[in-house]
Amino acid sequence: MACMKLGSKSDAFQRQGQAWFCTTGLPSDIVVEVEEMLFHLHKFPLLSRSGVMERLIAKATENGEETCVIRLDDLPAGAKAFELVCKFCYGVKLELTASNVVYLRCAAEYLEMTEDYGEGNLISQTEMFLNQVVLRSWKDSLKALQSCDNILSYADQLNITKRCIESLAMKASTDPNLFGWPIVEHGGVMQSPGGSVLWNGISTGARPKNSSPDWWYEDASSLTLPLFKRLITAMESRGIDHEIIAGSLMFYAKKYLPGLNRRQGPSESSTRLAPAASGATLSEEDQKLLVEEIDSILPMRKGLVSTKILFGLLRTAMILKVSPSCISNLEKRIGMQLDQATLEDLLMPNFSDSLETLYNVDCVQRILEHFLAMDQATDGASPCSADEGQLIGSPSLVPLTMVAKLIDGYLAEVAPDVNLKLPMFQALAALVPDYARPLDDGLYRAIDIYLKV
């Protein structure tokens, strides 16, 4: 992680419990309260660098108190930022890094640490470090963006969040081997403008291996959902392929939604969610929000996401009781590519508290209806468009035939359920057009099982 050293004096601060003391040998003449921390300091170093401190000290001095007490209630990042601000004011050595520069930039703005209060003041120093160092690096931009999350309103006001997001979006949308900044840093490797590997800032002439389009998925998944959503939106505006965007969304979903990382059969039809395998934990309310956000961002296109993952999202959505519109959209997405599903995918437990069917037959029926509606909309084969001889073996009929076989297999699996009423069984079986079944053996088998039960 890049850093910039400020100040030259040795550290003159000591912490004792909930108080910081400046050990310069001079008695303290000001106490600054920030959160639960007390800073015992000296007036001049503060008022000579900060417009806010100058005014507050002047106001407190008017009261004639020997030691003035000032409280900073709304300082961005609180005591941890003010500690570094104090070191800067006293000229003590400190390091600007991608992890603390946002805190310091916002704190400096709050305290009015402009050039009017000394050349090379904290606002100008942090701005220079942000623009010339942090935003030129993928890793540092990411760290800075992560730190924005704790003081988001301040970072947004100063346009820092947007700048970090735009920096990341630009780097993700550009071929790392052609890009002029050090983007690819996996394993600590930096790249020169020509794409060659840098060692201590010197080009070695070696070129790193080409990065796959998903090289940024893992890093982006470390962001909180609001920041991740803003990053993805920025990437979409830069024209990144929908397939890559969808891949990043599913990577994020798998990391935080435990329902996508394990199979669940009817014997495990619990409405509770286990912790995610990655160790990342979200409350069920946050998981619900994540599913709904993914649905809102993901383009409604066939093939962007595997059918198996879509079924996993749908099961999770039902457990979490997300909005009906979200569940309906997921059913439509699956319906668009139902021919790619397996029987195991369709066997979704019924998560209703009432005594109903073991499997969610109603949901499968809705998914099938979406598939048939889409098949008709895309001029799928039908008796109206060709005679029987032309239909048999027609390429346009293959998906429909596959779905017909899948539904017949599903009917045979759910037939033993004593709670499955005849109208429900009959309605699902009748949805499949007759011309989609070259053979009726699968349907007869399902009917036979149902009648025996």
Average pLDDT? 85
Shape: elongated
Q: How much strand content do the residues show?
A: 5-15%
User: Quick one: CATH class of one domain?
Assistant: Alpha Beta
Helix run count: 20
Descriptive overview:
- It holds the Pfam family BTB.
- Keywords: Ubl conjugation pathway.
- Belongs to the NPH3 family.
- Pathway: Protein modification; protein ubiquitination.
- The protein has 453 residues and is α+β, with helices and mostly antiparallel strands.
- Among the domains are: 156 residues, Potassium Channel Kv1.1, Chain A (2-Layer Sandwich); 102 residues, no CATH class.
- The chain contains 20 helices and 10 strands.
- The strands form 3 sheets. Strands 2-3-5-4-6 form a 5-stranded mixed β-sheet.
- Helix 11 runs antiparallel to helix 12.
- The radius of gyration is 31 Å and the shape is elongated.
Q: Which terms would index this structure?
A:
NPH3/RPT2-like; ubl conjugation pathway; Phototropic-responsive NPH3 family protein; five-stranded mixed β-sheet; alpha+beta; elongated; NPH3_dom; about 450 residues; 20 helices; SKP1/BTB/POZ_sf
What's the SSE blueprint?
Layout: E1 3-6, E2 13-16, E3 19-22, E4 30-34, E5 37-41, H1 43-47, H2 51-62, E6 68-72, H3 78-90, E7 94-97, H4 101-110, H5 122-132, H6 138-148, H7 152-157, H8 160-172, E8 190-191, E9 197-199, E10 202-203, H9 217-220, H10 225-237, H11 242-256, H12 284-297, H13 307-320, H14 324-336, H15 343-346, H16 361-377, H17 388-391, H18 398-414, H19 422-431, H20 441-452
Parallel strand pairs: 3-5, 4-6
Antiparallel strand pairs: 1-7, 2-3, 4-5, 8-9, 9-10
Keywords: Ubl conjugation pathway
Domain BTB: 28-98
Domain NPH3: 214-453
